[in-house]
Amino acid sequence: MEKEVKIAIYGARETGGLASVLDIMQRINQKKKKYKIIGLIDDKIESGRKCLGYKVIASKQSLSKLKDKGVFGVVCAIGDNKARERIASDLEKTGLKYITLVDPTAILGFNVKIGEGSVIYPNVVINSGTTIGRGVLVNTSCSIDHDNKIHDFVNLSPGVHTAGRVVIEKGVFIGSGASIIPDMTIGRNSTIGAGAVVIEDIPPEVTAVGVPAVIVKKSKGV
């Protein structure tokens, strides 16, 4: 019998992503006992506190000590893109693995590639030829059509739909229920509002909302 992998979950806020990640891990373990959760990591919740039945055992400052507890890797349950990028960098320094989770209900097409540390939530469909980068969140019931390129540290909220050959650059956040027509590019660090319909390329560092999506805000310096 294959040995369980000891992991910790980064993000202990009970109303954050923790419960969803625990659900995914439970479904994975029902099929094949794969992960053993040693505890939680959080930078704002004190060590020893229990959240959804698991103790906070570390923070950023004590990550390096997790290997002494037999921890192999870390799953990230934090939605903020920049925080996940910072956590990925911290994990690299400690040698801890950035664990990828794919819910058993997700449907993955031919030649789909998923980067380390990404989390694919329930009832997601990712069609053939799509590449998902590092630290990406593809939330519940998203559909990603063929030959998409989703770059690192993107957050796709529940119910996002992308058509074929869409490119979503690093650090993008897309709100719930947004749709993107074929061949569009969403520029680096941009935000697409909930329910928006993207029918033109979106440049980097902007916020676009509405049907069709229009730019309503630019980041400072853009």
Tags for this entry?
222 residues, alpha/beta, Rossmann fold, UDP N-Acetylglucosamine Acyltransferase, domain 1, 8-stranded mixed sheet, 6-stranded mixed sheet, globular
Uncertain runs with pLDDT below 50, 5 residues or more? none
Named CATH topology of the largest domain: UDP N-Acetylglucosamine Acyltransferase, domain 1
The level of helicity is 10-25%
User: Can you identify the CATH superfamily of the largest domain?
Assistant: Hexapeptide repeat proteins
Blueprint (SSEs and pairs):
Blueprint lengths: L4 E6 L7 H14 L3 E7 L8 E2 L2 E5 L14 E4 L4 H14 L2 E2 L2 E2 L4 E2 L4 E2 L4 E2 L4 E2 L4 E2 L4 E2 L4 E2 L4 E2 L4 E2 L4 E2 L4 E2 L4 E2 L4 E2 L4 E2 L4 E2 L4 E2 L7 E4 L4 E5 L4
Parallel strand pairs: 1-2, 1-5, 2-4, 5-6, 7-10, 8-11, 9-12, 10-13, 11-14, 12-15, 13-16, 14-17, 15-18, 16-19, 17-20, 18-21, 19-22, 20-23, 22-24
Antiparallel strand pairs: 3-4, 24-25
Fold and architecture overview:
With 222 residues, the protein is of the alpha/beta class. It folds into two domains: 5-99, Rossmann fold; 102-217, UDP N-Acetylglucosamine Acyltransferase, domain 1 (3 Solenoid). Helices cover 13% and strands 31% of the residues. It is built from two helices and 25 strands. Strands 7-10-13-16-19-22-24-25 form an eight-stranded mixed beta sheet, with helices on one face. The protein is globular, with a radius of gyration of 18 Å. The mean pLDDT is 95.
Give a brief description.
With 222 residues, the protein is α/β, with parallel strands linked by helices.
